[in-house]
Amino acid sequence: MGATKICHTCNKERPLSAYYTYVKTGKLWARCNKCHYRINTKRLRAKWVKENPERASRNNTNAVRAWIDRGTPGVYLVTCKEGLYVGASGSIQARTAQHTSMSNNGIQVHKNVTVLSWRILEEIEDPEERRLREIYWIHKLRPNLNIKHNPDVKEKRNRKK
Ligand SMILES: [Zn+2]
User: Fold this and answer.
1) Rounded to the nearest whole angstrom, what is the distance from the C-alpha of residue 71 to the centroid of ligand 1?
2) What is the Cα–Cα distance from 82 to 10, expressed in whole angstroms?
3) What are the residue ranges spanned by the domains of the chain?
4) Listing from the earlier edge strand, what are the strands of the sheet with 83-89?
5) pLDDT at position 14
6) What is the 126 CA–ligand 1 centroid distance (Å)?
7) If the chain, 161 residues long, is cut into consecutive pieces of 10 residues, what is the mean pLDDT of each piece?
Protein backbone atom coordinates (compact mmCIF):
# COMPACT_ATOMS: atom_id res chain seq x y z
CA MET A 1 0.00 0.00 0.00
CA GLY A 2 1.25 3.47 -0.90
CA ALA A 3 1.49 6.53 1.31
CA THR A 4 -1.61 7.51 3.19
CA LYS A 5 -2.88 10.46 5.17
CA ILE A 6 -5.56 10.77 7.82
CA CYS A 7 -8.35 13.16 6.93
CA HIS A 8 -8.89 15.86 9.57
CA THR A 9 -12.62 15.74 9.00
CA CYS A 10 -13.65 12.10 8.71
CA ASN A 11 -10.54 10.69 10.46
CA LYS A 12 -10.24 7.96 7.84
CA GLU A 13 -6.88 6.88 6.56
CA ARG A 14 -6.93 7.45 2.81
CA PRO A 15 -4.34 7.30 0.01
CA LEU A 16 -2.64 10.58 -0.90
CA SER A 17 -4.48 10.52 -4.21
CA ALA A 18 -7.70 11.09 -2.26
CA TYR A 19 -6.56 14.62 -1.38
CA TYR A 20 -6.57 17.68 -3.57
CA THR A 21 -3.43 19.79 -3.73
CA TYR A 22 -3.19 23.51 -3.16
CA VAL A 23 -2.05 25.10 -6.39
CA LYS A 24 -0.04 27.70 -4.46
CA THR A 25 2.02 25.47 -2.21
CA GLY A 26 1.66 22.03 -3.77
CA LYS A 27 0.64 20.75 -0.31
CA LEU A 28 -2.29 18.45 0.24
CA TRP A 29 -5.53 19.57 1.83
CA ALA A 30 -6.09 18.42 5.42
CA ARG A 31 -9.53 17.28 4.33
CA CYS A 32 -10.01 14.44 1.86
CA ASN A 33 -11.78 15.00 -1.45
CA LYS A 34 -14.92 13.22 -0.27
CA CYS A 35 -15.21 15.50 2.74
CA HIS A 36 -14.36 18.51 0.59
CA TYR A 37 -17.19 17.64 -1.73
CA ARG A 38 -19.64 16.93 1.10
CA ILE A 39 -18.82 20.09 3.05
CA ASN A 40 -18.09 22.67 0.36
CA THR A 41 -19.42 21.76 -3.04
CA LYS A 42 -22.52 19.91 -1.97
CA ARG A 43 -23.54 22.39 0.74
CA LEU A 44 -23.05 25.45 -1.47
CA ARG A 45 -24.82 23.75 -4.30
CA ALA A 46 -27.75 22.87 -1.99
CA LYS A 47 -27.89 26.46 -0.78
CA TRP A 48 -27.95 27.76 -4.34
CA VAL A 49 -30.66 25.27 -5.32
CA LYS A 50 -32.76 26.51 -2.41
CA GLU A 51 -32.30 30.13 -3.42
CA ASN A 52 -32.85 29.50 -7.12
CA PRO A 53 -35.54 26.84 -7.30
CA GLU A 54 -36.63 27.68 -10.84
CA ARG A 55 -33.17 27.59 -12.31
CA ALA A 56 -32.31 24.53 -10.25
CA SER A 57 -35.31 22.59 -11.44
CA ARG A 58 -33.94 22.90 -14.94
CA ASN A 59 -30.56 21.56 -13.91
CA ASN A 60 -31.34 17.88 -14.21
CA THR A 61 -29.42 15.70 -16.58
CA ASN A 62 -31.79 16.15 -19.48
CA ALA A 63 -31.69 19.90 -19.12
CA VAL A 64 -27.91 19.85 -19.03
CA ARG A 65 -27.88 17.76 -22.16
CA ALA A 66 -30.28 20.17 -23.86
CA TRP A 67 -28.08 23.08 -22.80
CA ILE A 68 -25.08 21.40 -24.25
CA ASP A 69 -26.93 20.92 -27.51
CA ARG A 70 -27.99 24.55 -27.58
CA GLY A 71 -24.64 25.90 -26.40
CA THR A 72 -26.31 27.83 -23.58
CA PRO A 73 -24.16 30.48 -21.86
CA GLY A 74 -23.39 29.90 -18.21
CA VAL A 75 -21.02 28.88 -15.43
CA TYR A 76 -20.10 25.25 -15.04
CA LEU A 77 -18.21 22.97 -12.66
CA VAL A 78 -15.97 20.18 -13.88
CA THR A 79 -15.10 17.39 -11.47
CA CYS A 80 -11.83 15.76 -12.42
CA LYS A 81 -9.82 12.95 -10.91
CA GLU A 82 -7.29 15.65 -9.96
CA GLY A 83 -9.76 18.10 -8.46
CA LEU A 84 -12.30 20.72 -9.39
CA TYR A 85 -12.48 23.33 -12.12
CA VAL A 86 -14.95 26.18 -12.58
CA GLY A 87 -15.39 27.72 -16.00
CA ALA A 88 -17.69 30.11 -17.78
CA SER A 89 -18.50 30.38 -21.39
CA GLY A 90 -20.77 32.15 -23.83
CA SER A 91 -21.21 28.72 -25.22
CA ILE A 92 -20.63 25.94 -22.75
CA GLN A 93 -20.54 23.42 -25.53
CA ALA A 94 -17.85 25.32 -27.41
CA ARG A 95 -15.77 25.84 -24.28
CA THR A 96 -16.08 22.24 -23.22
CA ALA A 97 -15.04 21.09 -26.66
CA GLN A 98 -12.15 23.53 -26.48
CA HIS A 99 -10.50 22.02 -23.44
CA THR A 100 -11.71 18.57 -24.08
CA SER A 101 -9.74 16.10 -26.06
CA MET A 102 -10.37 12.44 -26.39
CA SER A 103 -7.93 10.15 -24.69
CA ASN A 104 -7.79 6.36 -24.80
CA ASN A 105 -10.62 5.84 -22.39
CA GLY A 106 -12.26 9.12 -21.68
CA ILE A 107 -12.35 12.87 -21.80
CA GLN A 108 -9.65 15.26 -20.68
CA VAL A 109 -9.80 18.86 -19.51
CA HIS A 110 -6.63 20.92 -19.93
CA LYS A 111 -3.65 18.75 -20.63
CA ASN A 112 -3.48 15.69 -18.45
CA VAL A 113 -6.59 15.96 -16.36
CA THR A 114 -9.28 13.30 -16.41
CA VAL A 115 -12.86 14.50 -16.29
CA LEU A 116 -15.25 12.51 -14.14
CA SER A 117 -18.30 14.70 -14.60
CA TRP A 118 -19.36 18.23 -15.25
CA ARG A 119 -22.46 20.20 -14.48
CA ILE A 120 -23.90 23.61 -15.11
CA LEU A 121 -23.99 25.74 -11.98
CA GLU A 122 -25.94 28.62 -13.48
CA GLU A 123 -27.33 29.68 -16.79
CA ILE A 124 -26.40 33.32 -17.39
CA GLU A 125 -26.92 35.23 -20.59
CA ASP A 126 -25.24 38.54 -19.72
CA PRO A 127 -21.46 38.33 -20.27
CA GLU A 128 -20.55 40.71 -17.42
CA GLU A 129 -22.83 38.97 -14.92
CA ARG A 130 -21.45 35.64 -16.08
CA ARG A 131 -17.90 36.82 -15.49
CA LEU A 132 -18.80 37.97 -11.96
CA ARG A 133 -20.61 34.73 -11.18
CA GLU A 134 -17.65 32.72 -12.39
CA ILE A 135 -15.45 34.63 -9.93
CA TYR A 136 -18.10 34.12 -7.23
CA TRP A 137 -18.08 30.35 -7.71
CA ILE A 138 -14.29 30.20 -7.80
CA HIS A 139 -14.14 32.13 -4.51
CA LYS A 140 -16.77 29.88 -2.96
CA LEU A 141 -15.60 26.49 -4.16
CA ARG A 142 -11.87 27.28 -4.42
CA PRO A 143 -11.43 24.72 -7.19
CA ASN A 144 -7.80 23.67 -7.13
CA LEU A 145 -7.51 23.54 -10.92
CA ASN A 146 -8.38 27.23 -11.30
CA ILE A 147 -5.48 29.66 -11.24
CA LYS A 148 -7.32 32.84 -12.18
CA HIS A 149 -9.42 34.50 -9.43
CA ASN A 150 -8.59 31.73 -6.96
CA PRO A 151 -7.92 33.12 -3.45
CA ASP A 152 -5.57 30.22 -2.82
CA VAL A 153 -3.23 31.36 -5.57
CA LYS A 154 -3.62 35.11 -5.24
CA GLU A 155 -0.64 35.48 -2.91
CA LYS A 156 1.69 33.98 -5.44
CA ARG A 157 0.51 36.32 -8.17
CA ASN A 158 0.88 39.37 -5.95
CA ARG A 159 4.39 38.37 -5.04
CA LYS A 160 5.36 38.37 -8.69
CA LYS A 161 4.28 42.00 -9.19
ZN1 LIG B 1 -12.42 12.86 4.87
Assistant:
1) 36
2) 20
3) 33-160
4) 83-89, 74-80, 113-123, 107-109, 100-102
5) 95
6) 38
7) 88 92 85 87 81 66 57 79 81 52 37 70 88 92 83 59 45
